[in-house]
Amino acid sequence: MTSNRDVPFGIDFGGTGIKGAPVDLASGDFAAERVRFKTPSPSTPERVAEVFVELLAAFPDSAGPVGVTVPGVVRHGVVHSAANIDKSWIGTDADALFTEATGRDVHVVNDADAAGLAEVRYGAAAGRGGLVIVTTLGTGIGSALVHEGVLVPNAELGHLEIDGYDAESRAANSAREAEDLSMAEWAQRLTRYYRTLERLFSPDLIVVGGGISKRADEFLPLLDLDTEIVPATLRNKAGVVGAALYAADDRG
Ligand code: BGC
Predict the structure, then answer these.
(1) Which among 142, 160, 180, 212 is placed 20 to 30 Å from 152, CA to CA?
(2) Would you kindly state where each structural domain of the chain is located, as residue ranges?
(3) CA distance readout (Å), 98 to 79, 101, 107, 156, 168
(4) Integer distance in angstroms from the first to the last C-alpha of the chain?
(5) Are 144 and 112 in contact (CB under 8 A)?
(6) Do domains 9-112+244-248 and 124-233 have the same CATH topology?
(7) CA of 112 relative to ligand 1 center, distance in Å
(8) For 84-94, how does the pLDDT look when each residue is reduced to its tens digit (9 = 90+)?
(9) For ligand 1, is residue 210 a contact (CB within 6 Å)?
(10) Minimum CA distance residue for ligand 1 atom 9
């Protein structure tokens, strides 16, 4: 039998905050109230590890595996890219560093992959077969490719080159803010972006996450696409829930 102590724990490491909670995998919700710390600056792996130790100390009853999201490519626990985080992450064996620092069984996963797993298991794409592409629109564009419930990790579709640009530099929510685009202007760029995904992958469903997805009714109806596109439903829980799910499922 699984005791409370074995409940997996999710940590969402983002640019401004580090959030964590134990997760009830039956419901896909937090098993205890979430705790949030400010992301240290600079957010080097070592300084982030110190925050994780503090965060986990707030849950003395939790002893299960820990999943951690990182906004970069993660292969076998090693971080291989750092588009929007401190460059010192590149080459870091984050699984080993965090396991050593916390004394817990830690598994690191790309942030969008975690969100994708959570949306497919519990959220906007629950019960959907075929190919689901989950995108997160934030500082960058994150992406998760999930086929029949199975994740193909590190898709990195935010960095497709479109019209000579790194796609996220034109279509991420940060580009909308930086260039003060109207929703109609941004929707044109998103249409160009998602049409490229349609052409390359022929997905059955596209899910749009990231903080701005709570305003989906202001821009999703303006997109001109053939594929069904829906807002994420787990919102800011997706990272924590997906990380915990990944840690619990991880056999690597
Ligand atoms: C990174 C991805 C990440 C995404 C969202 C991109 O710039 O390359 O790994 O998932 O931003 O944070």
Answers:
(1) 212
(2) 9-112+244-248, 124-233
(3) 12, 5, 9, 24, 29
(4) 23
(5) yes
(6) yes
(7) 7
(8) 899 999 999 99
(9) no
(10) 72
